[in-house]
């Protein structure tokens, strides 16, 4: 009996599988890449300008060059490499994104279970008192008897119109989106950490430059004080120099505050607490500027940027939801089967004459729900248009980021070249002015102007050097960060429609 029941159920499942050969709704196709060949309106130069100073070397743009997964290693800073390892192991945002990916995957696996029959077992035992004179099907010798029932409950909803498969597709796309969100979190963390390290190095350089200027200003003040005692200059010149020195000293405290806050940021990014401190310190001299810079083709960029890939996955999820909404308006088929056995004693279960079975099927067609199903379908189609616009926005932002980074790399290379030239010229001018001042050949105002010019030029050199490293980090981030070449994790292939419907 039970075997005949399962044969009937198997035949019903085979028939349902044949019916479930297609899925309603659109089959998703990724949008085409923008039909452009570059990122900037003007042709990209072969190499940047160069400056005769540390961090001033020319950088070349190489189209065929790939980006490594650990791109920060191109800066050749052992301290940064060590700090990156600590941050990747302890950063809470990264851990949260990894857990969110696990949640998304498990939701996909749970939804895939709906493609299979649901089978549950049930066993019931009872002791009953039958009314006197009540006929008993079991031939019980007395009105008090035990009754045991064991049965299987089999239910199956064949995915005739593909609504379940479309819902699986939507969840799989959301899992892909979360996967790329994890890569985006990874990229954001590493970029922010590298950028923060460069900024710390810049602040340390500015503090060193400021203290150098303070020393120069202090030496000039001592010179003016001697000249004043000899009656060679007026007291007003000494007071003016004291004011100039105080102004420079005043700029030191904000730089030290920024440096302390920058250290707090580095500690937080690495997953620590400010009170725990950080063993690594960063200076510009510890970095090396990469000579060759990769410039991916526009068609490659949309495959490399995790935010664009996440937006594409969201677009696929929205497309699948249209199919779900359409399937909900179509007939729903349900099959159930209940084989079992009931007896007065446990050892009599499944003996001849105790078995029973029930098999049934139903078809439900929504007729009137106040327009709810229609409006859900229309809402799903509008959500797809929204996701498509968001995808296009992500692509536009990606191209803008690359273009901005390329412009900054070229412009800041020239800026450093000019800043170095200005620093050399203003230092020479200051040296000449100080000597002429000692000889009484010029007045104090000319010396003050030379000091201010050198101060500005010296700070500009430090900031321009840091800008070149920051621009390089920004380009690596804009190009996607090389996550496809990472060796610290096992890369997973995104779930495709073909995987779901096969």
Key traits:
502 residues; Outer membrane efflux proteins (OEP); 10 helices; two-stranded parallel sheet; alpha+beta
Walkthrough of the structure:
It is a single chain. The protein is an alpha+beta fold and 502 residues long. The protein has one domain: Outer membrane efflux proteins (OEP). Helices cover 58% and strands 11% of the residues. It is built from 10 helices and 6 strands, in the order H-E-H-H-E-E-H-H-E-H-H-E-E-H-H-H. The protein has helices spanning 2-19, 78-90, 92-112, 163-229, 235-269, 298-304, 306-327, 372-438, 444-478, 497-501; strands spanning 60-62, 118-129, 144-156, 292-294, 332-343, 355-364. Strands 2-3-5-6 form a 4-stranded antiparallel sheet, with helices on one face. A two-stranded parallel sheet has the order 1-4. Helix 3 (92-112) packs antiparallel against helix 4 (163-229) and helix 8 (372-438) packs antiparallel against helix 9. The longest helix is centred in the middle third of the chain and has 67 residues, at 163-229. It is elongated. The two termini are 34 Å apart. The model has no long low-confidence stretch (mean pLDDT 89).
Number of domains: 1
Oligomer: single chain
Mean pLDDT: 89
Count of helical regions: 10
Q: Distance N terminus to C terminus?
A: 34 Å
Classified in CATH, the superfamily is Outer membrane efflux proteins (OEP)
The CATH architecture can be given as: Up-down Bundle
- Structural class by helix and strand composition: alpha+beta
The overall strand count is: 6
User: How many strands, what sense, and barrel or not for the largest sheet?
Assistant: 4 strands, antiparallel
Instruction: Give me the strand/helix succession.
Output: HEHHEEHHEHHEEHHH
Helix content: 55-70%
CATH topology descriptor: Outer membrane efflux proteins (OEP)
- Write down the overall geometry: elongated
Task: Work out the radius of gyration.
Answer: 37 Å
User: What amount of the residues lies in strands?
Assistant: 5-15%
Trace the largest sheet across and list its strands. Answer: 2-3-5-6
């Amino acid at each position: 009996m039970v075997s005949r029941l399962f044969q009937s159920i198997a035949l019903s499942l085979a028939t349902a599988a044949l019916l479930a050969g297609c899925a309603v709704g659109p089959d998703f196709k990724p949008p085409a890449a923008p039909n452009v060949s570059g990122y900037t309106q003007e042709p990209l130069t072969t190499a940047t300008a160069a400056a005769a100073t540390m961090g001033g070397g020319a950088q070349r743009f190489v189209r065929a060059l790939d980006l490594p997964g650990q791109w920060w290693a191109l800066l050749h800073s052992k301290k940064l490499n060590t700090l990156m390892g600590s941050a990747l192991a302890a950063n809470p945002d990264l851990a949260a994104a990894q857990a969110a990916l696990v949640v998304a995957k498990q939701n996909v696996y749970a939804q895939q279970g709906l493609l299979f029959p649901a089978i549950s077992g049930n066993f019931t035992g009872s002791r009953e008192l039958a009314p006197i004179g009540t006929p008993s099907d079991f031939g019980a010798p007395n009105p008090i008897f035990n009754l045991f029932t064991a049965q299987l409950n089999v239910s199956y909803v064949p995915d005739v119109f593909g609504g379940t498969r479309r819902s699986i597709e939507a969840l799989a796309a959301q899992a892909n989106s979360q996967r790329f969100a994890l890569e985006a979190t990874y990229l954001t963390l590493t970029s922010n950490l590298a950028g923060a390290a460069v900024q710390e190095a810049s602040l340390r350089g500015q503090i060193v430059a400021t203290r150098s200027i303070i020393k120069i200003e202090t030496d000039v003040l001592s010179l003016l004080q001697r000249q004043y005692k000899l009656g060679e200059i007026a007291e007003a010149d000494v007071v003016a120099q004291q004011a100039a020195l105080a102004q420079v000293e005043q700029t030191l405290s904000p730089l030290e505050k920024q440096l302390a806050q920058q250290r707090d940021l580095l500690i937080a990014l690495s997953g620590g607490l400010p009170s725990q401190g950080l063993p690594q310190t960063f200076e510009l001299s510890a970095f090396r500027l990469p000579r060759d810079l990769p410039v991916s083709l526009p068609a490659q960029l949309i495959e490399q940027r995790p935010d664009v890939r996440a937006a594409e996955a969201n677009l696929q999820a929205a497309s699948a939801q249209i199919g779900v909404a359409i399937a909900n308006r179509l007939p729903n088929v349900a099959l159930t089967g209940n084989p079992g056995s009931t007896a007065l004693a446990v050892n009599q279960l499944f003996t001849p004459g105790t078995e029973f079975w029930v098999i049934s099927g139903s078809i439900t067609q929504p007729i009137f729900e106040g327009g709810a199903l229609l409006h859900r379908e229309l809402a799903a189609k509008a959500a797809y248009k929204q996701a498509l616009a968001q995808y296009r926005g992500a692509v536009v932002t990606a191209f803008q980021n690359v273009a901005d980074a390329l412009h900054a790399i070229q412009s800041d290379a020239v800026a450093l070249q000019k800043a170095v030239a200005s620093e050399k010229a203003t230092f020479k001018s200051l040296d000449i002015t100080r000597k002429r001042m000692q000889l009484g050949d010029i007045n104090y105002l000319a010396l003050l102007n030379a000091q201010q010019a050198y101060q500005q030029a010296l700070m500009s050199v430090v900031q321009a050097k840091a800008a070149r490293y920051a621009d390089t980090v920004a380009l690596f981030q804009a190009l996607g960060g090389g996550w496809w070449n990472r060796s610290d994790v096992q890369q997973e292939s995104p779930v495709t429609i073909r995987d779901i419907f096969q």
